[in-house]
């Protein structure tokens, strides 16, 4: 797709206030593939005004009509799914098959789910002598990262629109092209002018202006805990609602009764997918000491198979960050059993699929989010030890438990301080609430819980 040199505001592509641009780079070959405008506070202000002007009309649009627009949006995404996949592959670097199935496929499922939820939610409840109306919160400022660039946009915009909110989106500077494609899709789907607005730009400039803007009622952010903390502070000072989807360091707990080979192989695949750039990735594998050596061998062999298939990480900066963590793992005494700091190719921001054994819970690579294809394997003594290790980080976004008996896995999962747990490889469900315990975030996305985030209640007593 050809990049737009303007912002999508109030139903049209309009020139940016300033002249600064962002170069979009293909991380697989380091070539510049497009340029988009770097928005300023002035662009954000124009977009927020458009969203405020459009709010009363969209909020008063019957939910069935909002549902119809969301269904039309889903249909446009379906019609343009190949273009979406190619765009994400070009700017993020993920293999085309993964882009087709996940980067294009999941947003189609999620937008479809909100077309249905908008049509079926009554937006009204009874409680004793009260009628409770569920009303849109207002103007939403959405700030999204680059790792699942379209999914993270749709996971905010679709429920916001279903609820009757209007939106200003500031997508990640590394992946603005699929955001522009999304704005085209919104336009084609016939959403009224001003209901959705796009300001491309840099986080500390456009992102911060959006988070601080008094015309924004809810800031919904996905990204690093460091920036999420800042946004939470700004929103708190303004008594503004905030939703934060932050990092993770999720545990893949393999209980002794599990099918070890399956649990290890699926666990390695989970970490290597999207080059390890997944906030919910199971980056810590927990194995009983009697099975530890066998698990390490299986994981090293599984990781070696990804050498040819894995895509690059998103940028030179991200590559340097991931390699820094690998160096730190070695320096702190973990044992490298696959991969390492040697880049597998001369060109492109590639990192070898890497596995560390003999990782102990206090090591940096067992505590911090690396966001690259790096797995840490930890040893536990018994179930209580496994639980302590699993719960022993500041994060709590996702996780997995494997056991011979499902009830045994469920009992363990119920004791984990985390927002999602996949039991014996249970698959991703776009209707299940997604979000974190502890420092992994505030609020939930997806499904009916995700819709609730964009609603506020008004009670009338009779
Ligand atoms: P990030 O800085 O948190 O970026 C997320 C979004 O916030 C981007 O749109 C970014 O804009 C914007 N942003 C940055 N600074 C801002 C500010 N002061 N005010 C408002 N918005 C701001 O994340 P990153 O730098 O891309 O990645 C760094 C690390 O964060 C990764 O290595 C990973 O550990 C973690 N991460 C987590 C997730 C997740 O899904 N939980 C996603 C991405 C990254 P720019 O694109 O212009 O920076
Ligand atoms: Mg950043």
From TrEMBL:
InterPro entries: Ald_DH/histidinol_DH (IPR016161), Ald_DH_C (IPR016163), Ald_DH_CS_GLU (IPR029510), Ald_DH_N (IPR016162), Aldehyde_DH_dom (IPR015590)
Keyword Oxidoreductase: yes
Active site: 245
UniProt cross-references to PROSITE patterns, sorted A to Z: ALDEHYDE_DEHYDR_GLU
Ranges where the Aldehyde dehydrogenase domain occurs: 13-459
UniProt keyword Oxidoreductase, yes or no: yes
Pfam families: Aldedh (PF00171)
Domain of life (superkingdom): Bacteria
Keywords carried by this UniProt record: Oxidoreductase
Family as reported in the entry's similarity comment: Belongs to the aldehyde dehydrogenase family.
Designated name of the protein: Aldehyde dehydrogenase family protein
Organism from which the protein derives: Streptomyces ferrugineus
């Amino acid at each position: 797709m050809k990049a737009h040199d303007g912002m999508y505001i109030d139903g049209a592509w309009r020139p940016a206030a300033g002249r600064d641009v962002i170069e979009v780079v293909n991380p697989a070959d380091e070539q510049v593939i497009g340029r988009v405008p770097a928005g300023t506070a002035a662009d954000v202000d124009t977009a927020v005004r458009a969203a405020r002007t459009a709010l009363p009309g969209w909020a008063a649009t019957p939910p069935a009509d909002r549902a119809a627009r969301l269904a039309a949006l889903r249909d446009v995404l379906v019609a343009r799914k190949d273009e979406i996949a190619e765009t994400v592959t070009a700017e993020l670097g993920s293999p085309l098959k993964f882009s087709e199935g996940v980067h294009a496929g999941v947003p189609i499922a999620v937008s479809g789910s909100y077309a249905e939820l908008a049509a079926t939610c009554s937006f009204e409840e009874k409680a004793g002598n009260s009628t409770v109306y569920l009303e849109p919160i207002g103007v939403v400022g959405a700030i999204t990262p680059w790792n699942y660039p379209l999914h993270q946009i749709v996971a905010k915009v679709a429920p916001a629109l279903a609820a009757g909110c209007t939106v200003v989106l500031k997508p990640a500077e590394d992946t603005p092209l699929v955001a522009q494609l999304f704005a085209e899709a919104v336009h084609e789907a016939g959403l009224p002018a001003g209901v959705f607005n796009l300001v491309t730009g840099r986080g500390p400039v456009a992102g911060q202006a959006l988070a601080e803007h008094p015309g924004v009622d809810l800031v919904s952010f996905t990204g690093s805990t460091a920036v999420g903390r800042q946004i939470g502070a700004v929103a708190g000072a303004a008594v503004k609602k905030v939703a934060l989807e932050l990092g993770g360091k999720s545990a893949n707990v393999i209980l002794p009764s599990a099918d070890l080979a399956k649990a290890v192989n699926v666990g390695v695949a989970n970490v290597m997918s999207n080059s390890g750039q997944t906030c919910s990735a199971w980056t810590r594998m927990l194995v009983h000491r009697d099975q530890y050596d066998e698990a390490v061998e299986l994981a090293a062999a599984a990781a070696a198979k990804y050498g040819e298939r894995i895509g690059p990480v998103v940028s030179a900066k991200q590559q340097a960050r991931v390699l820094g963590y690998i160096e730190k793992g070695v320096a702190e005494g973990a044992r490298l059993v696959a991969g390492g700091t040697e880049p597998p190719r001369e060109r492109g921001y590639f990192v070898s699929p890497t596995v560390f054994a003999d990782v102990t819970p206090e090591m940096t690579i067992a505590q911090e989010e690396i966001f690259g294809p790096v797995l840490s394997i930890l040893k536990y003594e018994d179930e209580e030890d496994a639980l302590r290790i699993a719960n022993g980080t500041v994060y709590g976004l996702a996780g997995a438990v494997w056991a011979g008996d499902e009830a045994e896995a469920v009992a363990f999962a119920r004791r984990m301080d985390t927002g999602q747990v996949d039991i014996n490889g249970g698959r991703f469900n776009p209707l299940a609430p997604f979000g974190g315990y502890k420092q992994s975030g505030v609020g939930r996305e997806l499904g009916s819980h995700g819709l609730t985030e964009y609603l506020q209640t008004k009670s009338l007593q009779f």
